[in-house]
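Q: I have 100 residues here and want to know how they pack in 3D. Can you give me a structure?
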Amino acid sequence: MTIFRLAPIDIRANDEKWAVSTIREAVWVEARDDIHARHLVENATLKMAEMHRKRKILYSPWLDPVITSCFPDKDAKHPPKGKLLTAEGETIEIPGAETD
C-alpha cells in the first residue's frame, strides 16, 4: 500500500461540492491506488448538504480531480491504519476500513 496526499486545488476552493465534505484541507491516507485513496477520503468526510430545488446533486469534492489533487507522497506523514491524517494533525476514522 502507498501513502497518498490529497489536497484542495486553490482555484476551486469555492466550488459548491465542498458543502458535502467535513474538511477542506490536505490529508494523507494509505491506499492501493489513487482511486482507492479518493474513495477512502470520501467515506471519511462525507456529510449531508442542505437540499435546494434547483441545485444539482452534489458529489464529494475528493472524487473530482478538477477540485482536488491526489498523488503518492514519498515524504508523507504516516496516518494510523484505517484513518486519515489531516494537515492540522487530526486523525479521522474511515468507516469500514481495516484498523489492524
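Q: Anything worth noting?
A: The two ends are 14 Å apart (CA to CA). Residues 34-45 form the longest helix (12 residues).
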